[in-house]
Input
Amino acid sequence: VGTGDRFGQSFNIGADYSISEDLIFNINLDINNRYKEDIDSQLFFQEATFEPYLEPIEQKSEETEDKDNISYDIFFELKNSYDNPDKEFLISYGFNNNYESEYETIIIDTTFIDEEKNNYEVDISYKLPLNKNSQLEIGYDGRFNQSKEDMIFQLSSDEENNWNFTGNNNFNYSRSIHALYGEYQIKINDKLSLKPSLRIENV
Output
């Protein structure tokens, strides 16, 4: 038998601002708060050597997420257009933060987990038509990821709540990617086009 509740709320707002006729600034903010409470009860029978030969055993588990769990995304974009619709200059920045805290209890064993993730993205690109059949694009991609997890697991106790075992696990992860790229596209005919490209990354 299982019972559970899910809770959540979100907020989103965005805006566009025309700095000039060709230059547009865009911003978007998204905030989410979601958590849950689950309780599960299982009844199974274990073989016994005396009557009753089947002994009922109830196992309960509980999984709960903290009410303060929150994630938010922020996105900025600056875009410059030109008379030629194929020509464009773009700068964008995105940031995501996600924090989660939860615990799970099975009978008398409990695991606590706190996790936080931060992701950043930076994009810069410039598209330049060379003629009606060819186009050049150059740009930069930046990807930055950070993750941290703290776990306290298997806190076993007796009926008087005397802890007799504690395990800890801490995990930290960080990665940065810087990339420069160039793409050249040429249209041979209505059915064939070529797009050679070059990308250099530093991780």
